[in-house]
Write a structure and sequence with these properties.
278 residues; alpha/beta; single chain; 4-stranded mixed beta sheet
Length: 278
């Protein structure tokens, strides 16, 4: 049975002159889950006309998208926030049954953080992408700051993904090993951190590192959710070490700008063979 992952978060619509860009890692994470034989579902608040554009590829793949509030899309015009989508309510999240609840917000106020304790009390599996929770609204602009509530919610998390820059902002260190051990001590079961040469996972007091094999541009700040979504989707099929190899392979293809949904099993297997332990 495919691993069902509910992705929770809103989208940012950026308008600069005549250029419109939609920003959210939730889309690539959902595609990575689909490519990894999982079943992605997206829960979000967005205007329907924007949803039809930003989620077009997901719609074409028959990926389920649930919009609870279509009144507003978070919109930034020339770096100024002009509209903010409403937070995704706890009731909406609890109505959907899934194997994992994966939070990928674009702003700190996309989701009420009390949901972590509620899901934890129900023994639900929770994954968190830290990026959006560090995006605070100040003076109608996005300010990247330390997520002060992280220590309180780590004990409810099965997985957290963050990058080197976020390690520094949160803990004032680029020592990813130190950050991973600290978060594990505070209760998070697995920590996934992409950095400049490898993807590493910390669990059960051990580090597991997979080096990248790249042909193209490195987009180090965008691969975390692709890797974690792939990893979670495969952990019910493969042992965790193999699932990490698989996730690293998908991350490599993603960084080389491949369409993850069109990869053959042979291509993925060959890339996994290329990947070595650091």
């Amino acid at each position: 049975m495919a691993t069902k992952i509910l992705f929770i978060g809103n989208v940012i619509k950026k308008i600069e002159k005549d250029n419109i860009i939609y920003v959210s890692n939730i889309i690539d994470a959902a595609l990575a889950t689909y490519a990894s034989n999982g079943k992605p579902i997206i829960l979000t608040n967005i205007k329907k006309e924007d949803a039809n554009i930003v989620f077009k590829k997901l719609i074409d793949l028959d990926i389920e998208i649930i919009i609870n509030d279509d009144s507003k899309t978070t919109t930034i015009i020339n770096d100024k926030i002009c509209e903010i989508a409403n937070p995704i309510s706890i009731d909406n999240i609890l109505e959907i049954d899934a194997n994992y609840y994966y939070f990928i917000p674009t702003l700190n106020n996309d989701v009420d953080e009390s949901i972590f304790q509620i899901l934890g009390s129900k023994n639900k599996k929770i994954a968190l992408s830290l990026t959006g929770f560090m995006n605070y609204i100040k003076n109608d602009q996005i300010s990247i700051e330390k997520y002060s509530s992280l220590n309180e919610i780590l004990k409810y998390l099965d997985h957290i993904v963050l990058d080197k820059d976020q390690c520094f902002i949160q803990e004032f260190t680029h020592d990813e090993d130190h950050v991973a051990k600290r978060y594990a001590k505070l209760g998070c079961k697995e920590v996934l951190i992409p950095y400049y040469e490898a993807l590493f996972n910390y669990r059960d007091n051990f580090f597991y590192r997979c080096k990248y094999v790249l042909d193209g541009e490195i987009l180090i700040n965008r691969i975390g959710d692709v890797a974690l979504a792939s990893y979670i989707s495969q952990t019910d099929i493969l042992i965790k070490e193999e699932a990490l190899f698989y996730a690293t392979a998908l991350a490599c293809f993603y960084m080389d700008k491949n369409d993850l949904t069109k990869l053959s099993k042979e291509e993925i297997n060959f890339k996994m063979i290329e990947i070595g332990i650091v």
